[in-house]
């Protein structure tokens, strides 16, 4: 495998082939979004799930009726997601054609965000190929169907939040505590579970009082912008909600008589999830793979301990796998490409198995950590072996 990597490292793609691949991948991205958007809107009810609840609340935000937005405890969406659904509510989007168009436009924006993030991650490694890899990542995410599926399920946050987490991880690795925490705050404004991305802050090169202060300022500012107006305008009752425990979850297996899952239990689940993400962050701090591994760890443990396990809950895992794929291609790591493709296929193909798929994803996360640590050690060893030998002054040389 090392010989193959060496051979690939010397390969330079002809310009015409690069153009052909760019056009082909862009076509796959657009066609994938168009097909999945059409399928999502072609059922008996073309509109998204929970639209009656989310659309009305989003329209309240856009029309200034802020005091009535969070009066229903069943509303478990953040202000940014409600604003997202307030747009079609105000515009009066309806019918298969209307919703297909809306899904396609929204999906294209998310796919574009995937491409931008992939470009940011891969450009320092291989600048010439970063645009092509970015388009490939967008094509893979679009063709997988998870972007359109999360939108049609009423929860585009499942696509947006992991991208914000990985952007925050990238900012943290570059030493920007304020912006990394602000992005986590923005993610929490989409849905409360966005706060589970805080372990990426452990990727900061230096963690001291100044970094903690900047992170606190950035995170609190983003949260204040998102939730402050509604806390001031009227009641926020979302924390009075309790989830049913579904049959396919690990919780149902362990607690067959459990009736519901309240917010205190959500807090306990969150602590366990954050602890897992923090452990992975500390183990992989020196590796670029931490950008996707920490979100993957958080999402996998969240899935393993969740009472609901809806199909769209697996969307963040697929997108983490897509960014793993982009990074692996940039580094020409066939082993990492395999990890990425297995992650995507397990998350997309084994959703119906419930907690079993989640357990497999936890195992894949562990494998990813091992691969990342080995690659990091190999890179350091290569750098040290290629360093020039120290020059000995002439007068100190032995004749």
Explain what you see.
The chain is an all-alpha fold and 399 residues long. The protein has a domain at 237-379. Helices cover 68% and strands 1% of the residues. The chain has 16 helices and 2 strands. The chain has helices spanning 2-9, 15-41, 51-62, 79-91, 95-122, 130-144, 146-152, 157-173, 177-190, 209-233, 250-254, 263-283, 290-304, 315-331, 334-349, 355-385; strands at 243-244, 260-261. It has a two-stranded antiparallel ribbon. Helix 8 (157-173) packs antiparallel against helix 9. The longest helix has 31 residues, at 355-385. The protein is globular. It starts with a helix and ends in a 14-residue tail after the last helix. 46% of the residues are buried.
What is the fold's blueprint, element by element?
Elements: H1 2-9, H2 15-41, H3 51-62, H4 79-91, H5 95-122, H6 130-144, H7 146-152, H8 157-173, H9 177-190, H10 209-233, E1 243-244, H11 250-254, E2 260-261, H12 263-283, H13 290-304, H14 315-331, H15 334-349, H16 355-385
Antiparallel strand pairs: 1-2
Helix pairs in contact: 2-5, 2-6, 2-7, 3-4, 5-6, 5-7, 5-8, 5-14, 6-14, 8-9, 8-13, 8-14, 9-10, 12-13, 13-14, 13-16, 14-15, 15-16
């Amino acid at each position: 495998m090392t010989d193959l990597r060496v051979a690939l490292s010397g390969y330079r793609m002809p310009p015409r082939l690069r153009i052909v691949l760019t056009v082909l991948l862009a076509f796959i991205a657009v066609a994938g979004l168009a097909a999945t958007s059409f399928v999502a809107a072609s059922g008996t009810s073309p509109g998204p799930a929970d639209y009656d609840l989310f659309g009305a609340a989003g329209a309240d935000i856009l029309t200034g009726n802020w005091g009535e937005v969070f009066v229903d405890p069943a509303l478990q969406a953040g202000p940014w997601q409600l604003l997202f659904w307030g747009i079609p509510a105000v515009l009066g989007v309806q019918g298969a054609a209307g919703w297909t168009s809306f899904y396609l436009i929204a999906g294209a924006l998310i796919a574009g965000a995937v491409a931008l993030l992939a470009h940011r991650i891969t450009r320092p490694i291989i600048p010439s190929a970063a645009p092509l890899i970015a388009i490939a990542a967008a094509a893979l995410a679009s063709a997988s169907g998870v972007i359109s599926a999360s939108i049609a399920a009423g929860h585009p946050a499942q696509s947006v939040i992991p991208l914000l987490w990985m952007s925050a991880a990238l900012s943290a690795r570059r030493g920007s505590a304020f912006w990394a925490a602000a992005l986590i705050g923005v993610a929490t404004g989409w849905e409360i579970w966005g706060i589970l991305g805080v372990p990426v802050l452990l990727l900061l090169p230096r963690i001291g009082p100044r970094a903690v202060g900047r992170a606190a300022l950035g995170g609190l500012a983003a949260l204040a912008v998102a939730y402050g107006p509604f806390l001031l305008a009227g009641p926020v009752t979302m924390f009075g909600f309790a989830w049913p425990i579904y049959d396919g979850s690990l919780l149902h297996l362990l607690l067959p008589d459990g009736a519901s899952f309240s917010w205190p239990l959500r807090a306990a689940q969150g602590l366990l999830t954050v602890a897992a993400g923090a452990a992975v962050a500390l183990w992989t701090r020196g590796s670029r793979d931490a950008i996707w591994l920490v979100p993957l760890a958080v999402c996998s443990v969240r899935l393993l301990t969740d009472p609901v396990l809806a199909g769209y809950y697996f969307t963040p895992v697929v997108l983490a796998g897509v960014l793993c794929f982009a990074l692996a291609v940039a580094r020409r790591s066939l082993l990492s490409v395999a990890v990425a493709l297995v992650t995507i296929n397990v998350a997309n193909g084994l959703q119906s198995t419930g907690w079993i798929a989640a357990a497999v994803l936890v195992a894949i996360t562990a494998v990813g950590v091992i691969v990342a640590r080995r690659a990091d050690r190999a890179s350091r060893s290569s750098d040290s072996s290629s360093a020039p030998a120290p020059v000995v002054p002439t007068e100190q040389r032995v004749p």
